[in-house]
């Protein structure tokens, strides 16, 4: 298996979710998940990856003092991943972790109290937050950004070669944020045309399901068949699965901010770091 940094994750995903006990190349795993999951495969893969990491860290942070010390010194869950972690971690782990985090912040606040506080009014809130908690980063956000690049690159490669085209066409496709990211990643116009034409079909199928849902609801003959969750899946199609795709939204905000300022050149960070170039 050529899974790079994420090799163990791909192996466990195939084993636990696809009941594949033999070695599977990443492309074969993608083909299977496209045929299995009923909403955006990219969102689902990001969710599986975050769940896998949070489960492992829950164990390490509960048992290993050196991991706890490392976390307290350098990591901060962002709001989204803090709540994700809460779904996985035991209350005891959360309690232990926050006891140490609180102690560290109290120490830093006491340090601030000894200095001149009048400067705070002129500071940026981000700077003040850093003064309070130290220089830290959300480990899950960093991992998600790296893993999303890998997933998009692998999908782009499979679509360009043709190997994943039929599985993708039969699948629910990507949510619109991930569709945009995938289109940025494709190597040629022919593949982009295939992806857009396929997306039109997928959205049309979703619209048909919404029609069926509406008709069944109106006639009070809801059959709880394939269309029963059509509104929820349509929502995922628009915005992505709950809690996923945040990296993309940050990019969108950056893009809008740079253009509303009248200076497209300010979007250099977007052009310098296109989604999906790096393959790990
Ligand atoms: Zn998605
Ligand atoms: Zn995060």
The major pleated sheet works out as: none
Radius of gyration: 22 Å
Query: Poorly predicted ranges (pLDDT <50, ≥5 residues)?
Result: 263-280
Mean pLDDT value: 84
Q: What is the chain-wise order of helices and strands? A: HHHHHHHHHHHHHH
Instruction: Decide which structural class fits the backbone.
Output: mainly alpha
How much of the sequence lies in strands comes to under 5%
Shape verdict: globular
Number of strands: 0
Small-molecule binders: zinc ion
Distance between the termini: 12 Å
Percent range of helical residues? over 70%
Count of DSSP-assigned helices: 14
Topology at a glance:
Blueprint: H1 7-17, H2 26-36, H3 41-63, H4 65-74, H5 79-88, H6 91-113, H7 125-133, H8 139-161, H9 165-170, H10 176-185, H11 189-218, H12 230-239, H13 246-260, H14 268-272
Structural overview:
This protein is mainly alpha-helical. Helices cover 70% and strands 0% of the residues. The protein is built from 14 helices and no strands. α3 crosses α4, α3 packs across α6 and α11 packs antiparallel against α12. The structure holds zinc ion (2 copies). The site of one zinc ion has 8 residues, from α3. The site of one zinc ion (ZN) has 6 residues, from α5 and α8.
Features:
14 helices, 280 residues, mainly alpha, single chain, globular, 70% helix
Short description:
With 280 residues, the protein is mostly helical. Helix content is 70%, strand content 0%.
């Amino acid at each position: 298996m050529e899974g790079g940094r994420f090799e163990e994750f791909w192996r466990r995903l195939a084993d636990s979710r696809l009941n594949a006990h033999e070695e599977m190349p990443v492309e074969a795993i993608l083909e299977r998940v496209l045929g299995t999951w009923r909403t955006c495969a990219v969102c689902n893969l990001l969710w599986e990856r975050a769940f896998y990491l949070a489960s492992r860290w829950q164990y390490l942070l509960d048992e290993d003092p050196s991991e706890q010390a490392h976390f307290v010194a350098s990591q901060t869950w962002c709001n989204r991943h803090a709540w994700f972690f809460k779904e996985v971690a035991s209350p005891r782990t959360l309690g232990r972790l926050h006891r140490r985090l609180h102690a560290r912040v109290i120490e830093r606040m006491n340090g601030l109290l000894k200095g001149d506080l009048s400067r705070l009014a002129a500071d940026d809130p981000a700077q003040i937050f850093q003064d309070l908690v130290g220089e830290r980063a959300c480990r899950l956000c960093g991992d998600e950004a790296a893993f999303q690049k890998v997933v998009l690159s692998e999908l782009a490669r499979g679509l360009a070669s043709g190997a994943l085209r039929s599985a993708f066409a039969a699948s629910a496709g990507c949510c619109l944020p991930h569709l945009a990211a995938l289109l940025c990643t494709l190597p040629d116009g022919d593949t982009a045309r295939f992806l857009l034409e396929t997306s039109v079909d997928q959205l049309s199928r979703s619209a048909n399901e919404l029609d069926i849902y509406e008709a069944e609801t109106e006639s009070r003959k809801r059959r709880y068949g394939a269309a029963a969750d059509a509104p929820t899946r349509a929502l995922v199609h628009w915005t992505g699965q709950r809690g996923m795709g945040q990296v993309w939204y940050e990019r969108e905000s950056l893009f809008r901010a740079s253009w509303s300022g009248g200076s497209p050149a300010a979007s250099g960070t977007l052009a310098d770091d296109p989604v999906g170039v790096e393959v790990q």
